[in-house]
């Protein structure tokens, strides 16, 4: 394996195979996340959720996918045709790019990830911030007032929450001393008799809570789903999209949801470390738990009003995240 | 953790009760999640209908296999939307279809028009037309919703049918000619 990896051509073969495999896995995971969300939301409302196609409705997404794929590829009149088509592509590309640096696990010395970048987490944020372009450009190109409003709301929302999201993680970096996701996961402590990895949430609980709230806003999910806001904005930026282009936005939303869940697991819950559970499965388990948390929150809370959203972002989360950074810095200096 | 949601005018009590409210909401939805679902799985499972439910029509027979309908057209007259068509013909000794003087040669109901009011059932002097419990009548073309007499008529009672099958003779029993009906 390592011979193949060190050979320059073999290296590329390995990387391409890994990318293909990862795409396949993430796409499948997305499909079953949608299934999971529909079933979980159904249960919360005491409905069974999809249960017709295949056992337990597991093939529902295949049926939906086929149906949407065969829909007419429709571009409304007087839209900006080029931007209209590019926008959903940006959404999907940005969503999948983040997975290039997300480490899935280290199992018997095999790395289950594509790139071990030393600024991994920065790359994830840089790429996931591209999502706002997809939404704003899609909203602008649709030539529809609801789409434009959805896009603008999204821009304001993402800018507001991106900062508290980034700042919420700064204490983690300060404690670990690295931006590499692998280093963060493998952060070990020497507390008396105990030597080993710990969930970083113990050290930065406030950062975790800010991250959790900001991440929901960042992925445009309920209760922060103002860009879509079916009841007031028809479908926001999605209004004019149908067929495969709609699928791409939809896919991007769910991939982003899995990404933020994976990051929460990596940054605050020790990634693939869980006592007695094989690494990849431990990571999977943590992701599923976070996904359930997001679905649970969606099933519970009503959407925030726009001014509440802004107030929460700027007057609560951002100062709190800054305070968290300062307090952590002071404690770190005092300890060392 | 209590300081994580400071409001414009931070008041410890408000923040705590706000977070408590959020947690109460989460607790409620989580406890609902594990309760049994209330959905009726429709095609497999059906909710009970009232005994007086008015669904698809039937034309009834007497126990000896004769049709009840005497072709009086009172049902067609009572029908508020005019969806019933009855064309009567005389009974003869060779071809006895119903006990009365006449019988319905043609009996058609347009189910697309029918409003299932049950006035036909009330108007009928011999209880020939009744509304049954079936309500699943979807079909693939408009023509199929014109229910003809063959479709509406009850099957022959089993004993009469058995007698007919045994004899096979064309003139022995009156009900045998029942289904002769020109299109």
- Shape designation of chain B: elongated
Tell me which CATH architecture of the largest domain in chain B applies here: 2-Layer Sandwich
The number of helical elements of chain B comes to 5
Helix content of chain B: 25-40%
Rounded to the nearest angstrom, the distance between the terminal CA atoms of chain B is: 83 Å
Q: Radius of gyration of chain B in whole Å, from Cα?
A: 30 Å
User: Helical stretch count of chain A?
Assistant: 13
Question: Tell me, what's the shape of chain A?
Answer: globular
Low-confidence spans of chain A: pLDDT under 50, at least 5 residues?
none
* Portion in beta strands of chain B: 5-15%
Low-confidence spans of chain B: pLDDT under 50, at least 5 residues? 1-7, 171-181
Q: Tally of extended strands of chain B?
A: 5
Q: If interface size is counted as residues with C-beta under 8 Å from the partner's C-beta, which chains form the largest one?
A: A-B, 23 and 22 residues
Q: What structural class do helix, strand and pairing data of chain B support? A: alpha+beta
How many strands, which pairing sense, and closed or not: the largest β-sheet of chain A? 2 strands, antiparallel
Q: What is the strand content of chain A?
A: under 5%
What string, H for helix and E for strand, traces the elements of chain B in order?
Answer: HEHEEHEEHH
Strand count of chain A: 4
Structural class of chain A: mainly alpha
* Largest sheet, strands/sense/barrel of chain B: 3 strands, antiparallel
